[in-house]
Each structure stands twice: as C-alpha cells, then as structure tokens.
C-alpha cells in the first residue's frame, strides 16, 4: 500500500507479526482454493445445453420414459430421487450406483433397498435415448439419472428446474464406501451437517434435500427403535414423537414386523411433492429420528417452520440444493469416466 500508519513504522516487531499472520492467512486461503479446485473445475464442465448438437431431444426422450413408468407405478418417483442422492453422495454423480454385480454399491448397506422400479426407469430411459439414431451411445447414464430425477419431482407436483449436463459415467462401484457416505436414520443434526458439509452443502441445503421425503416410504427397521424400548440395546437419540402417531406406527410395525413392511414418510400428502413433510415434523410425526431432529433441534427449527409455511421457499431452496448436489464429484474428462453402453455395467 502507498500509505503507511505511523504507528506501524514505530513498531517493526508488530509489523513483522502482522506480516507473518497475513502470510499464514494467505496460505490457508490458497490451501482452501486448492482443495476446492477439483470440484469447481469439474462443475465448470457441465452446461444445460451440453447435448444441443449431439442429442437435442434428450430431455423429451427421458421425460417420455418417466411419464410412462409413473403411469404404471408411483414408486418410481421417490425411488429415483433416492437413487440420485445415493449416487452423488457415495462416489459423486457418476451413475456408479447403477453398476450391478457382487460387491458393487447397491449390494451394500442402505443401497440394498434401492427401488427396483427406479432402476427399471433408468434402464428404460437409457433405451429410449439410445433408440434415437442421433443419440445412440452419446448420453451418459449419470446425465439420464439427473434428468429423470428432475422429471419425477416435477411430475409428482414439485418444481421443474434446469439440469446441468455433461457428466461421464464412473468405471468403479464398490460397496466398501457406501456405509460411511450416507446419512443414518438415527443421525443427529451435528452428524447430518458434518456429512453434508463434506459434500459442499449447507444446513439449509440439507434441510431442503431432506424435504424429498415428502414422497416415499421407509422400512420398519429404520424407525422401530423409536417405537419400543429394547432390553440391552444401546440408547439411541430419539426426538419426541406424537403419542397418537406412536400408537398408530406400533400397529404398522409390531415387534414381530415383516422386513418388507413400510410406512409413508409424509403422513399428510404422501403421493405429492409438497411441503407436507415439514408439517409432519411440526406435529412430531416424523418417522426417522434424522428427520424429526430437524424440528427438535432449535438450530434448524426456524428453517423447518419457514418451509412448512411457505412452499415456494421450500421449492426454491430445493432447486438450489439439487444444483449443488448434481455437481458433486462429477467426471467430465479423462480416463476415469466413460459413456456406458449399458447402465448396469462398465464398458
């Protein structure tokens, strides 16, 4: 700087100390930038019109497959949204979750309950895209999954939003990384925030993405410990549950429940993508502890109340969070990615 403080001139040791502090600060900033660079660079390879010349009809082709599948079963809607989330959180948005075989991702942990209807939807969408002569083997399964996710949300009553495209499909899918990559049903707010922050997502992003539970179901084993006290079991963090709802859920999931038994995550409007999920949390009717904690913890309650009262605010936050989610760990160039001919196996 051209001007100097006279005080700094009279205290060279302080000046030296400040210089050292500034150097440390610059070093930290450079380190943070270097850490963030791969994600920024990868996201920079995406664009909304990526297939404008190679497959201009890709969005219509995927949307047609989605519409046909949802006419057969609504299960494909929440299943596809969950599929996309699991894919992006485990290895980045590279469709590695679709790879099928012993030891692959969807043979482990929470991925073992991924919806067959969602997997079938992506298979059909891929076939529809490749059946177009101008598109054959030019669109990645990762991009098809991203587009299909947007379409199921929109067709279930949620917002429509532009999707960035240009992802390559990953060549690796291993079960070893699944367990530590996805949130657990008993997670506290701190655990949720930590896991989402690792993926570049804020607490508001996390609460907005949790709103995807406005459609879909969960199995009894994910919340049964909120319904009963099990002798000898380790205590589990459990936010309060509405007593009438507790009795109702005990009827759905008795102690001898079937592993196939499920319950709706949103008891208000389970077949519509809206802000009803947040209203269930206000009523203490959240099934999963990791859902109800968003209202139980004062640090996140205001956001839940805001989304419960203002669906437009929820939709806007959801769209913003989905854009960030879709950029996690994407592959846009290099030997670590490809365009799979079949979504369930590498070329």
TrEMBL record:
Reaction(s) this enzyme catalyzes, per UniProt: 2 a phenolic donor + H2O2 = 2 a phenolic radical donor + 2 H2O
Q: Where is this site: Transition state stabilizer?
A: 82
Provide the protein's localization.
Answer: Secreted
- Chief place where the protein resides: secreted
GO molecular function list: heme binding; lactoperoxidase activity; metal ion binding
Binding annotation for substrate? 183
- What does the record's cofactor remark say about binding? Binds 2 calcium ions per subunit.
Indicate which residues the UniProt annotation says bind heme b: 213
CDD domains in the record, alphabetically?
Answer: secretory_peroxidase
**Which BP terms in the Gene Ontology apply to this protein?**
hydrogen peroxide catabolic process; response to oxidative stress
What the entry lists under InterPro entries is as follows: Haem_peroxidase (IPR002016), Haem_peroxidase_sf (IPR010255), Peroxidase_pln (IPR000823), Peroxidases_AS (IPR019794), Peroxidases_heam-ligand_BS (IPR019793), Secretory_peroxidase (IPR033905)
Q: Which residues form the active site?
A: 86 (proton acceptor)
A Pfam family matched in the record: peroxidase
What cellular component terms from Gene Ontology apply here?
extracellular region
Write down the required cofactor(s). Answer: Ca(2+); heme b
- Name the UniProt key words of this record, in alphabetical order: Calcium, Disulfide bond, Heme, Hydrogen peroxide, Iron, Metal-binding, Oxidoreductase, Peroxidase, Pyrrolidone carboxylic acid, Secreted, Signal
Q: What EC number(s) would the UniProt record show?
A: 1.11.1.7
Q: Where is the Plant heme peroxidase family profile domain?
A: 45-347
User: To which protein family does this belong?
Assistant: Belongs to the peroxidase family. Ascorbate peroxidase subfamily. Belongs to the peroxidase family. Classical plant (class III) peroxidase subfamily.
This one is known as Peroxidase
Q: What gene, per UniProt, encodes this protein?
A: LOC123410381
């Amino acid at each position: 700087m051209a001007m100097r403080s006279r005080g700094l001139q009279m205290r060279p040791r302080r000046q030296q100390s400040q210089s050292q502090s500034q150097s440390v600060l610059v070093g930290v900033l450079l380190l943070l930038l270097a850490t963030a660079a791969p994600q920024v660079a990868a996201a920079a390879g995406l664009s909304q019109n990526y297939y404008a010349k190679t497959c201009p009809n890709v969005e219509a082709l995927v949307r047609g497959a989605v519409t046909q599948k949802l006419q057969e079963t609504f299960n494909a809607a929440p299943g596809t949204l969950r599929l996309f989330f699991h894919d992006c959180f485990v290895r980045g948005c590279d469709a590695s979750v679709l790879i099928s075989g012993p030891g692959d991702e969807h043979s482990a942990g929470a991925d073992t309950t991924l919806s067959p209807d969602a997997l079938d939807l992506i298979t059909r969408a891929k076939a529809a895209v490749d059946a177009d002569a101008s598109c054959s083997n030019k669109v990645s399964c990762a991009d098809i999954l991203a587009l299909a996710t947007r379409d199921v949300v929109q067709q279930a009553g949620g917002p429509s939003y532009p999707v960035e495209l240009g992802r390559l499909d990953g060549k690796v899918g291993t079960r070893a990384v699944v367990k530590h990559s996805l949130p657990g049903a008993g997670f506290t707010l701190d655990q949720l925030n930590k896991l989402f922050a690792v993926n570049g997502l804020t607490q508001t992003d996390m609460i907005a993405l949790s709103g995807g539970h406005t459609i879909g179901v969960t199995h009894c084993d994910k919340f049964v410990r909120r319904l009963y006290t099990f002798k000898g079991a380790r205590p589990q963090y459990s936010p309060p549950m509405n007593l009438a709802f507790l009795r109702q859920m005990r009827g759905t999931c008795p102690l001898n429940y079937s592993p196939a038994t499920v319950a709706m995550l949103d008891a208000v409007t389970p077949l519509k993508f809206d802000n009803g999920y947040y209203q269930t949390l206000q009523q203490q009717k959240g099934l999963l502890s990791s859902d109800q904690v968003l209202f139980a913890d004062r640090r996140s309650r205001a956001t839940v109340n805001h989304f419960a009262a203002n669906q437009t605010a929820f939709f806007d936050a959801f769209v913003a969070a989905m854009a960030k989610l879709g950029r996690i760990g994407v592959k846009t160039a290099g030997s670590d990615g490809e365009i799979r001919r079949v979504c369930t196996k590498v070329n």
